[in-house]
Design brief:
The chain is α/β, with parallel strands linked by helices. It has six helices and nine strands. It has a six-stranded mixed beta sheet. A three-stranded antiparallel beta sheet has the order 2-1-4. Helix 4 runs parallel beside helix 5. It is globular and about 45 Å long. The model has no long low-confidence stretch (mean pLDDT 91).
Length: 227
C-alpha cells in the first residue's frame, strides 16, 4: 500500500459566532496517500474549504487528530512538502510572473536556484513565453496557471487546490486542470481539489462528498468482489 501523506482521525472543526455554533466539519476520518487524485465536492458552505485548510495545516481541529506521516510535523509542512493553489491566483502586482513563482523558492534556496526552478515550473504549465510579464498583463487563465506554477515549484509531495477554476470559464478551467495534472505526471505527489465543478471532479480518480459539514467517502469494494 502506498505511503500515507495525511491521516485524520475523528477530525472536527467548530466555530462559535456569538451564540451560534457552526459545525463546519463534523467528526471525519480519512487518509490521503501517495499518488491520490481526490476531488472534494459539495455546495458552497458545505465545509470543503475548512477541510482543505485543516489538511494544509492552515487551521487546527477543534477535536480529533491530524498527522502527516510521510511529510513531516505540523508547522513545518509548507511550502516544501505541501503546495497550495487558491481560487484567486493572488499574485503580487509589482512582480513579474517568474518573480511571483520565485517567492516560496527564495524562502528555502538561493536566488540563482530559485530563478531556474521558477522558470521550469512555468514551463511545466505552458507559460514560458509570459515569464517576464506583470500580473495585469496576464489573462485570468494565465494568472491562475502562474499560481499553479508557484504551488508546484518546490515539487511538493501534496498539492491542495481550493476551487482553482472557480473564476474561470469552462475552456480556460479545463486548460488549468490540464496544466495541473500534467505537472504532476510521473511523480508520487498527491492532489486534493475542492471544487463545485463536475467537469473538474470527473478528471480525478476519487470523489469525497461534503454536505453541511459531513464528509462522505466512497465505499471500498467488498473483499473478494470483482474489480
Amino acid at each position: 500500500m502506498s505511503e500515507a501523506f495525511v491521516v485524520g482521525a475523528a477530525v472536527a472543526r467548530r466555530f462559535q459566532q456569538g451564540d451560534v455554533t457552526l459545525d463546519a466539519l463534523r467528526p471525519a476520518s480519512f487518509t490521503v496517500r501517495a499518488g491520490d487524485r481526490i476531488a472534494i465536492v459539495g455546495p458552497s458552505g458545505s465545509g470543503k474549504s475548512t477541510l482543505l485548510q485543516l489538511i494544509a495545516d492552515l487551521d487546527t481541529p477543534t477535536s480529533g487528530t491530524l498527522r502527516w506521516p510521510a511529510l513531516g510535523v505540523s508547522g513545518a509542512l509548507r511550502p516544501r512538502h505541501i503546495g497550495i493553489v487558491f481560487q484567486s491566483a493572488s499574485l503580487l502586482p509589482s512582480l513579474s510572473a517568474v518573480e511571483n513563482v520565485e517567492v516560496p523558492l527564495r524562502l528555502l534556496g538561493g536566488p540563482t536556484a530559485a530563478r531556474a526552478a521558477a522558470r521550469a515550473a512555468l514551463a511545466s504549465v505552458g507559460l514560458t513565453d509570459i515569464a517576464d510579464k506583470l500580473p495585469d498583463e496576464l489573462s485570468g487563465g494565465q494568472a491562475q496557471r502562474v499560481g499553479l506554477a508557484r504551488a508546484i515549484a518546490l515539487r511538493p509531495r501534496l498539492v491542495l487546490a481550493d476551487e482553482p477554476t472557480g473564476q474561470l470559464d469552462q475552456p480556460t478551467a479545463q486548460q488549468a486542470m490540464d496544466a495541473l495534472l500534467y505537472s504532476l505526471e510521473g511523480s508520487d505527489a498527491a492532489l486534493v481539489v475542492a471544487t463545485h465543478d463536475p467537469a473538474v471532479a470527473r478528471r480525478l480518480n476519487t470523489v469525497w462528498r461534503m454536505d453541511h459539514g459531513v464528509l462522505t467517502l466512497p465505499t471500498p469494494p467488498a473483499v473478494g468482489a470483482p474489480a
